[in-house]
Structures are given as C-alpha cells and as structure tokens.
Amino acid sequence: MVWNPGQQLFGGRYIIQKKLGEGGVGITYLAQNRRSELRVIKTLREQILNHPAWITKQDKLRQDFRDEALRLALCHHPHIVQVENVFDEDNLPCMVMEYIPGEDLAEKITEAGALPEVEALQYIQQIGDALTLVHEKGLLHRDLKPSNIMLRAGKPEAPHTPPSWECVHDIPVISGTIALSPKGDMLASVADSVIYLFSATTGKFIRTLTGHSDSVNSVAFSSDGRFLSSSSSDDTIKLWNIATGKEIHTFSGHSDSVYSVAFSGDVPFFASDSYNNIKLWNVLTGKEIHTFSGHSDLVNSLAFSSDGKILASRSEDDTIKLWNVLTGKEIFTLTGHSDVLDSLAFSHDGQFLASRSEDDTIKVWNLATGKEISTFNGHSDSVNSLAFSSDGQFLASGSEDKTIKLWNAATGKEIFTLTGHSSWVRSVAFSRDGQFFASGSEDKTIKLWNAATGKEIFTLTGHNYSIRSIAFSSDGQFLASGSEDKTIKLWNVATGKEIYTLTGHSSWVRSVAFSSDGLMLASGSDDKTIKLWNVTTGKKIHTLTGHSSYVRSVAFSSNGQFLATGSSDKTIKLWSMTTGKEIHTLSHFDSVSAVAFSPDGGWLAAGDQEGNIKIWRRC
To answer: WD repeat ranges (predicted)?
Structure first.
C-alpha cells in the first residue's frame, strides 16, 4: 500500500504530503501534523512483508520495527534526529520523526570539496558523541555515511533508519506509550491493544495485560503502585491488579475513544477523558461519579492537585479548566494561550498553576481567583533558559531566536531585547547584585551585559564549541562557563579575561554552579559525573559518581552544605559537601533538566523535560 498526498494517519493527527523515498525494507513520507509542522514518517514496505522469505515472520518484523523505534525515541541528543511518535496504521508500524530541511554531508562535500580540518573534526566529534549515546542504548548504526548525515545550521544530524540498526544487547520489547510506577520499579508499555509490564530495575518481562479490543492510548499507575488504569480507542477504561495481572473492572460510559487517564493522589478516584468530556470514577466501586463537560475540542491531558481536590484539564481548544472533584462543578476556565498547551504544573502549596504552550509563552495563574498573573511572550522561537534577578524583580530569557529578553517579573512587560549572538542562546544568568547578566550561546561566546542599560560590556571568547551553562559567583567577581568542548572556563568579570580552563570531563559540560561562599564550583556533564573544583586554585576536589545518564543541572544549597544534581536518568541526587557522599536519590517523571533550592534551603524544586515540576520539603 502506498499512501497518497492528503491521506490522514493516526486518527487525523498526520496528513501525508508526499513520498520521500524507499530503502531496502522501508519507505518514508513527508507529513504534516495538526500544528502544520512537517514530520517524516517511516514504515515497512508491504512488498517486504509479503515476500516469501518474510511471509511467515511478518509479526516479528513488525515488532522488531516497533522495538527499535522506541529505543531510538529514548536517544535524546542534539545531533540525533528525534522520534516524536510510534503507532500502527493499517497493521503497518510507523515511526514519526522531526523533519530536517537542508543538505546532507555528502552534498556539502561535493559542493565545497575537501572540508577544512577544523570543520571536519567538529563533525567527527559531534557524530561520535551521538553514536556514543546510541551505543549506550544498545543500538548499532550499520549505514553511517555522509549521505545519511543531515546538516542543520551546519551541524550534523544522525538520522534514524530502522532497517540499518540491529540490537547489540537483549533489551526487552517496549513500544508506544509508557508509564513508570511511583517507586520506579515497574514499567508499563503499550503496543496496539496489549500492555506489557517489565521490571524497571532488571529490564525483565513480567506479563502482558490483554482485554482491550482497540488501541490503548494511555496508561497510569496509582500512587501506591497497586493498580494500573488503561484507556483505549474501544471507548473503555480498564483497571488492573498489578500483583496478579488480572482485570478488576471495565469502565464504560464514554461514547468515543478515551485518550488519557490520571489517578488522584489518594487513589479512590481517577479521571479519564474522551474527546471533550472528562469522567470521574470511583476505583473501589467502578461507578461513575461525575461527567465534566465544557471543552469544545479534544482534551489531551489531566492533572490532579496534590490534595486531590482540584482536577485540571488542558484541551486543544487552547483552554485550561479547573474542576471541583467533590462537586463536579467547573471552578474556572483559564484562557489566553493561542496554541496547543504543552504542560501543566501545580505549585506545591496549590496556590498557583503554570502552563506552557506552543504559542511560545509561559503563563502563571492564581488558583484562588482564576486570574492570569503574568505572561512572558515576544520570542520568535523556543526559549532555552530563564533566570530571575536575586530580588525577583526581573526575569531574563534566552532563546533560539538568538536574542535575550529582560522582563519585569511582576507585570510580564519586556524591558530590553538584546541582540548580538549569531546563534541560539543556551544560558542566561544574573549577578547577585543585579548589575550584570550574562548569556552563553551556540556561537561559542559569552556576552556580559549591563542590566540597567542593556548595553554589552564584553564578549568572552575561547571555547571551541557551544556554551551550555553559565553562572556568577556570589560576589560577582567571577563567571564560570561550561561548554560542549568538555571544559569549564573561569572568567574575571571586571576585566573579561580568562583565569582558568578546567579540564577533566570526557563529554559535554551541561551545568555549572558556584557555592554560596564562592570557593567551590560544581560541574555536571554528559559523562554522567559531577566534578567539584577549588575556585582559587583551579584544582579538582572530588568527582561524584552515581547517575546512570547525563547530568543536566547542578545547584548548591544556600549554606553550601548540600549539592543537588538532576540527570537524564530521571533522578535528582543530594550530596553532602562535607563528605562528598550521596545522601538521597529522588525520582522524577522524566529527564531532569533543572534543579533549584529555595533561599533558606528548606525546599528543592526540579523540573523535567516534559514540563513537570516536583517540589520537595526538607523534613
């Protein structure tokens, strides 16, 4: 079967634009999603499935494709094309990837001739870094050649080509939607109408849960880990006993596909959504309690407040609704975003709700009044970094539109737009006294700015690759920068001169932070380690190990006694600065991209790459 332009896939979520090409066993299409963004969809050629050599192994070939697609989806790296979705269409497994316009490396070499040595070495390093991650995920690329390397803004992107990958290790089969149990010991994954349970600690398969007659769209664990709920295109929700694998109850009442499920924290209730209706169910009796109606388009996410009294729903009608769980009544409709909402997060005290949208804005809402407190917009591309001034009056944002914006935090009003970087701005930071702020960019430079006037003071050069993180010392005398060149540089803020280059990491440095007394610097790296440095001498003090993936964020407590580190392994670790030993490991929903202590050190917040925020209180 060949899909023609205009054909809709996955319930209308993707529309075929044209066929891009065919390989040995696969075929690729250019498609458009509901937000009019271009995507590449790969699937298996039916001629291969029906070939005499494969006719008896069709199911295995399909499942192998799904397995590899999901493993590739777990390879998050700046130089690997990202997998967005995995689904089945007409019994053909499909993988959706981001679309990379432009030329491939072979075309560049043909056009330019021999590449300069520095440029060639840069490509080799970036491709090597990408392959390192791929190998860590148990995969092997067997068709790595210049024509398979796409260039995005002059940087190589290793494409996902399922027929050219093979498994190196025996990794369990997982596909489609996944969910991790609260204790992190069990993983549920979905392939069509079947749910697979695995041990998250050993990777061993436990059992399958079968009973749905159509695709399973979402799964969720109860907070105590005893139950799993699943929603399906067969218009039902099923509740499962995790210990036995037995179905406890089938919840019927929706008249359309059920897309999402969420448990309240205290378990007796869970919520489900089907197109524009939400239902609240009693877990113990299987009875429907309320139906929440009011959204005019697909409801795509649900979240309970920490006390279970409020349910928030986000919809493709660009609104958020807050519901009273006990009465079933709508409390507020929060409107203001102009595009699909990406994520919701409640504050720990339940007073505020933050929402992020594909309209490139972040909004903060007061839950007592339902009023929007502030909106930050104005960038023409994704925002990579935010930093508050120490007095909380100002907010700085760095964007892929190559600019930095300074905002009034209370009103959301833009004060300055700062230009000068020639590529994405990856990191921004304020000095403690609020006089300066700095920006680090993919253009390999750091710029120091006067916060009062918005004027550039210095451009700091010396790194060989992109700047991933910057931080001021508490006294404002020093600035540290971490880079993809695997080094940290320490700069004199008054003169703009480099003081030290700190070497020792074997991969990108993603995060740097000073202790409150300014005597110690911490760095987190893609080599999975954290290093502690003596700022006065530039010497390494400790190397902290324990994370199983990239360390993406580091933060000191205000008293300097503790260090928090966030990692792509979905954990936050707390370390004693007295002993260098790990104290606690805290779990998150997804790769942890940011960690921060409250000024008094009593609270720790961590955000993941899916927009979820967790807050811990020191007991």
So the answer is: 209-250, 251-291, 292-333, 334-375, 376-417, 418-459, 460-501, 502-543, 544-585, 585-619
Q: What is the mean pLDDT of the chain?
A: 78
Which string of DSSP letters, residue by residue, matches 388-456? Answer: E-TTSSEEEEEETTS-EEEEETTT--EEEEE---SS-EEEEEE-TTSSEEEEEETTS-EEEEETTT--E
Exposure of 371 by Cβ count < 10 A (0-12 exposed, 13-18 middle, 19+ buried)?
Answer: exposed
Number of DSSP helices (H) and strands (E) in the chain, helices first:
4, 53
338 and 203 in a single domain? The answer is yes
Note whether residue 587 is domain-resident: yes
Last residue of a domain, one of 342, 374, 406: 374
Phi, psi of 343, rounded to the nearest 5 degrees? -160, 160
Give the span between the Cα atoms of 416 and 588, in whole angstroms.
35
**Which pair of structure tokens corresponds to residue 617?**
């209180």
Would you say how long the chain is, in residues? 619
What is the amino acid identity at position 362?
I
Where in the sequence is the domain holding 432, given as residue range(s)?
377-617
Q: Where are the beta strands (DSSP E) in 23-129?
A: 26-33, 38-44, 83-89, 92-98
- Give the model's confidence band at 404: pLDDT under 50 very low, under 70 low, under 90 confident, else very high: very high
* Residue 51 belongs to a domain: yes
Give the pLDDT confidence score for residue 163 in this predicted structure. 31
Please list, residue by residue across 545-582, b when 16 or more beta carbons sit within 10 angstroms of its beta carbon and e when fewer do: ebbebbbbbbbbbeebebbbbbbbbbbbbbbebeeeeb
Q: Which of 336, 320, 424 is closest to 381 using CA atoms?
A: 424
pLDDT average, residue stretch 469-475:
91
CATH of the domain at 68: 1.10.510.10
Query: 119: how many CB neighbours lie within 10 A of its CB?
Result: 12
DSSP classification of residue 80: B
| Farthest CA pair distance, the chain | 74
Distance of CA 406 to the CA centre of its chain: 25
Residue-wise pLDDT for 80-109, tens only, equals: 777 877 888 888 888 998 888 777 777 777
Q: What pLDDT, in 10s, does the model give residues 282-316? A: 767 777 777 777 777 767 667 777 667 777 777 77
Q: What is the pLDDT of residues 545-603, one digit of tens each?
A: 999 999 988 988 878 888 999 998 889 999 988 888 898 888 877 788 778 776 667 77
Judge if 384 and 418 occupy the same domain. yes
Evaluate whether 31 touches 96 at the Cβ level (below 8 Å). yes
369 and 491 both lie in a single domain? no
Regarding whether 575 and 481 lie in a shared domain, the answer is yes
Report the 10 Å Cβ neighbour count for 48.
Answer: 17
Domain count, the chain: 3
Question: Using 50, 70 and 90 to split pLDDT, how confident is the model at 5?
Answer: very high
Residue whose structure tokens are 């190589």: 156
Report if residue 545 sits inside a domain.
yes
- Do residues 400 and 421 make contact, with C-beta atoms less than 8 angstroms apart? no
Segment 190-234, tens digit of pLDDT: 766 788 887 766 656 788 888 888 878 888 888 778 888 898 888
In a domain, 100, yes or no: yes
Asked whether residue 362 falls in the same domain as residue 404, the answer is no
Q: Is there a single domain that holds both residue 381 and residue 397?
A: yes
- Residue that terminates a domain, selected from 167, 196, 217: 167
